[in-house]
Amino acid sequence: DIVLTQSPGTLSLSPGERATLSCRASQSVSSNYLAWYQQKPGQAPRLLIYGASSRATGIPDRFSGSGSGTDFTLTISRLEPEDFAVYFCQQYGGSLSTFGQGTKLEIK
Amino acid sequence: QITVKESGPNLVRPTQTLTLTCTFSGLSLTTSGVSVGWIRQPPGKALEWLAVIYWDDDKRYNSSLKSRVTITKDTSKNQVVLTMTNMDPVDTATYYCAHMRLLSTWHRVGFFDYWGQGTLVTVSS
């Protein structure tokens, strides 16, 4: 199975700042089949990005995804108060799907 | 509009079998390309994909849990059922059901675009 490692574990930033979250795969992710999710306390994950860079329906354009092969990035260009949450990546290029361990984005 | 909802017991005793039901609307598991999966999340921890079932009754399982997990569907009720045997306290988690979006019918792994609210299952004596 492909192992996904997210970094940092916790990211402390202020509203208005730029956030850069990393997801690294143990082997190349086929066809850049990499998704990002946002999860707030007590809620289900929400799909943000699929195919490494395509925004899901209704996701603001301050969220963007990039990368290929084994290294992927989620960027939030200008943090809004509602963006502070936990973010997970998921690969679906292998024969089975796996998730990263998550990055907590907290208010500084 | 697709909606998904999980139901089942909140408390299970160790060694018992867990049965969870996912009821959905806005999609049908008789339609080619449709798939529904289960994902769980222990408190404060990461997401773990468990199983998925496809429109043609194909099934895939997390290799680490394959011997304990079974997924089935009832298309007449728009439901998917997950059973997990020999429950242990480490299986305490929120269990989510979600629609898995496939980008092609030949690559049967996708991303999850519609999620239920989740159901917390505690394993304790």
What is the compact description of this entry?
The complex is a heterodimer of chains A (108) and B (125). Chain A is mainly beta.
Beta-strand segment tally of chain A = 11
Distance between the termini of chain B: 40 Å
The most extensive contact between chains is:
A-B, 26 and 23 residues
- Spans of chain A of at least 5 consecutive residues whose pLDDT stays below 50 are none
Radius of gyration of chain B: 14 Å
Estimated helix fraction of chain B: under 10%
Q: Cα distance, first to last residue of chain A?
A: 35 Å
Characterization of this structure:
The complex is a heterodimer of chains A (108) and B (125). By secondary structure, chain A is mainly beta. Helices cover 0% and strands 49% of the residues of chain A. Chain A contains no helices and 11 strands. In chain A, the strands form 2 sheets. In chain A, strands 2, 4, 5, 6, 9, 10 and 11 form a 7-stranded mixed beta sheet that branches. In chain A, 34% of the residues are buried. The mean pLDDT of chain A is 96. Chain B has 125 residues and is mainly β. Chain B is built from no helices and 11 strands. In chain B, strands 2, 4, 5, 6, 9, 10 and 11 form a 7-stranded mixed beta sheet that branches. Chain B has a 4-stranded antiparallel beta sheet with strand order 1-3-8-7, with no helix packed on it. Chain B is globular and about 45 Å long. The termini of chain B are far apart. Chains A and B meet through strand 5 and strand 10 of A and strand 9 and strand 10 of B.
